[in-house]
Structures
1.
Amino acid sequence: MTKKLDTKGVSRRSILKGGAAVTGAALGSGAITGFPTIWAQNIKDVTLRQFGTGVSNLNEVAQKVKEDLGFTLEMTALDSDAVTQRAATQPDSFDIADIEYWICKKVWPTGNLQAMDTSKIKNYDKIVGIFKSGKLTPESVIAQGTAPHTVGFVDGPDGKSFAGEETGWMTLIPTIYNADTLGIRPDLIGRPIESWTELLNPEFKGKASILDISSIGIMDAAMVCEAMGEIQYGDKGNMTREEIDKTMAIFTEAKKNGQFRAFWKTFDESVNLMASGEVVIQSMWSPAITAVKSRGIPCVYQPLKEGYRSWGGGIGLSKSLSGLELEAAYEYINWYLDGWVGGFLMRQGYYSAVPETSKNHMDENEWGYWFEGKEATGDITSPFGDVLAKAGETRDGGSFYDRMGAVACWNAVMDENQYMVRKWNEFIAA
Amino acid sequence: MTDQTHLFIHKDTGAAPAKSRTPFSLSRLPDAVTGWLLSLPLALVLFFFLVLPIVMIVVVSFWGATEFSIYPAFQFDNYEFLLTSPVTYQVFFNTIKYALITWAFTLVIGFTVAYFLAFHVRTLTWQIVLFLLCTIPFWTSNIIRMISWIPFLGRNGIANSTLISMGVIDEPLDWLLFSDFSVILAFVHLYTLFMVVPIFNTMMRIDKSLIEAAYDNGASGLQTLTNVIIPLTKPGIMIGSIFVVTLVMGDFITVRFMSGSQSANVGRLISNDIALLQYPSAAATAVILLVTVLLVISILLRFVDIRKEL
């Protein structure tokens, strides 16, 4: 008897569940609208799985999503290579891919992501020009490499190849980007550093480092070789075999002469190398500098006269996302661009794709310091509470327009990528 | 173990077992069938979890790859590139160099530790206590044990600051960290126990009266060691060597961390390929590595018949 009751209970519950799912699907497809209560109840059951690199996949964001939107966001932080692998080979293991634009070039052709309808993006018009036309200001020159706008659009919802201009269908919704340069230990160097050439300066023999992620490392190497006047590249982001050979030859020679102390692959490694004084000059990421500084060790994200090597990241949606989950994902994207996350990221030294909404979530001092390049009027703290700068200090590299306007190239995937990777392996093994 | 072996031999060659009256039992089946049935579970497990994956790897090693996908094909490109590239030889040379040096150090240290435990420590209690002491470092993970060397050996690390304060050196020694030295040091630290355990195990089974006999016949300590103990410990040494050599040849994370990514072994080559989605190329490298390791092991096995010695 008891058994029978149980079965009944279960089946009734499953019918209810099924009903909810049908309602959800109907809502998602846009067939029924105007049922906010049902929507609010259903969305609580939604779980979206997001993965990406450690820079933006932070638990604080997931918590805030739960508070503001009600659904659950599961975050997985991986390194750049693992991100590429997962996006390309395990399409069903995620709903939202937080990836970098240069990775998009590798991942989009696999068909694991779906294009996004920009008409559903509330703040689309406020997204900075870099991601739409490639130009920061109308006069800007578009930098070399895989500039985000070149892989940002496809022709339609099922488009396979990238479109040259805005089409209303985006591959990734831009979220975060920055201009990278060399990090230095001013206390151990004791003189001004102005050019990328300093990375191979014998003065820093055994105290220099670059990162061992080939697609990014080669760009840094190219910045150095070009600054040395050794090589004139057609496009640093799309080198010929000859250019790759020359670049790697210069770096291999430096390696054999003992220029490098170590190569790093993860964020933590770069922080430890710098903080322990093993290296005094290395390619580095902005929050890594922040991490070194928050240990009380002087570290500068040195602007260089040849300009910056830049990167951008965005959110992509899994092909298999549909119905209520898809609606929730759009909700999430709109929330993302609404400013809270932007403020959170900008306080770490990155830029938000929609700076003007982030402004609402930062105080005047923070906005002045991080975006406008003004002197801090009080202590500047990271989102985690560490003091990064005191009153009177200004940000390395100045304002948003100074920094992003001086981008020399974007992280890229070259046509000769496979050849480049082989050459890079030779360099590591040399 | 010996008894059991005899039993099997006897059963295989001996007369058919007596017929029992029970309607069905395994013993009514022909011996050959029983044997096959008994080995079936293990055979299946090995087939699905060892043979099949290896076959897959071999198959994929002939496939082609683009930037973002792999496609079935039968081409020799991966091998051609691998075998014609000077990097491959350099990296294999490096791998074997690490394996040999690590092997030599772990053997000497492992043998000494095992010898001490087996012959110098008198009571079983102390033997167990000291043996457990050896395993304490293994309570933490491989990576943690390895990474703990980095602050120790670093430019401003404990080793350098101690040496400087003792007046032995004026400048910090750079080669302590991010060098072949640190790689091998970490390997030896990580893998010596794999040498200690099998050697200790075989030493414990050496009949003590053999050593007494050698002593009674006037053999010196060294003679006892070389003529009695080492030959009798050979199986343990071989098993330990196989452990160490295969572990070192397959390890890539130690090389990456301890050399500061500045040197490469075959494992790193494979992990790089995988990271860049070049699965076929990674598979080809893996096949070559597998062949190399199997060759090394077959050479080792020529020196001693482990099955007989066990």
2.
Amino acid sequence: MTETLYQYTVPAAAHWSLRIRRGTTLRLTDVEGGANLGMMLYNPEDLLEKYNAPDTLKCQHTFKLTQGNCLYSDMGRIFCSITEDSFGWHDTVCGTANKAMVQKKWGEKNYQSAHNEWHQNGYDSFLVELAKYGLNGKDLASNLNLFSKVVVDNEGNLSLDAKHIKAGANISLRFEMDTLVILHTCPHPLNSEAAYPYKPVHCELMTTPPMPEDDYCLNFCPENRRGFENNRLYHFFR
Amino acid sequence: MIQESTLEAADAVFRQTVPAGDYFLKVIAAGQTLRILDLEGNQAADTLFYNANDVSERYSSMDTIREQGNIYLTAGSKLMSNLGNEMLVIVADTCGRHDTLGGACATESNSVRYDLEKRCMHACRDSWMLAIAEHEELGFTKRDITHNINFFMNVPVTAQGGLTFEDGISAPGKYVEMNAAMDVIVVISNCPQLNNPCNGYNPTPVEVLIWN
Ligand SMILES: [Zn+2]
């Protein structure tokens, strides 16, 4: 039913961006286990429209992201749906580590001395990719941290569940509108490994069959049905 | 954490009531103390902060919760910028918990959260859009409107990863007070939300007080 269009393994400590067409699925795999994929989503036709973590969480009454959840823009529309997820709990509130945080945690290792084994940070990675589209730090908001499970206790304390790692874990994002995807493979800001973790992420772009009426994401909650209706309206008037 | 203030309202250098559905915009100088007072209880004050000397530096909910390792704000919480700097510190709080995960209401998200027909109901982001339009001197655009604090809102996360909007733990006369560590522009949308039971479908005014 689905056909693989393109595959690429994003190396560790790297960044990338691509425009993904509506009707395409992006399957991401944590090849070795312990990866973190930082991601931001923008509307390529209106770069002011971007992924909105608060709306995504409150529309679906959830703190974690997993199968069934849709990723919302600030305009009440759905960039993509999580159609499959073998990991189970992805973070979208912790943001991304900057240069100072990475240096403090793992020491400085710059490109001159370490080449691709440098201690690249997620914040600079985002800035580099954003600049290619005329965007900057003002356009950054809460990003996704795929393959990172962040939990909250009764008192509200946050922690990264470092034991929740699965080599081969994958998540499938079905794009519901054309989307500019900005991503990096730098460590999660709460990662406390002794050494800077170098973990690649495999990306596979696939065709997607039309969404059936009994689709899991569409019916996950009444809110998602309304989100899809907003998408329909958006595409109808284009 | 409940922490009473030592400041007297009579000594404030500035006082203004902000009706529900209106915005409030003002520069607070470093060292000044800002109090937001929930006059009638269970109101949400959706608040943004910017470095008054460089507005590209602004309040960041993700940096704040990550750096303090906790999702709730209360006395002792440091409000952090997107550049990792301390903007303000909460010095008094008689409510005990404030939210910074839930974001502001917008007409667009209201259409998803409540009903497609709610698209044209007044929302916090509309108040901010008006603030932007009426304060061209600041050079703000929609790009500058980012994730905010919801003072007086209670949005607990469960162990299973659920997010719930609980009845407010605020009440008439509860307040939160913060001390500015840098010159900041404060932008409040006093929430006009008519769809959320947590304010009894009755949005009410807040008062802003400032001390030197
Ligand atoms: Zn509101």
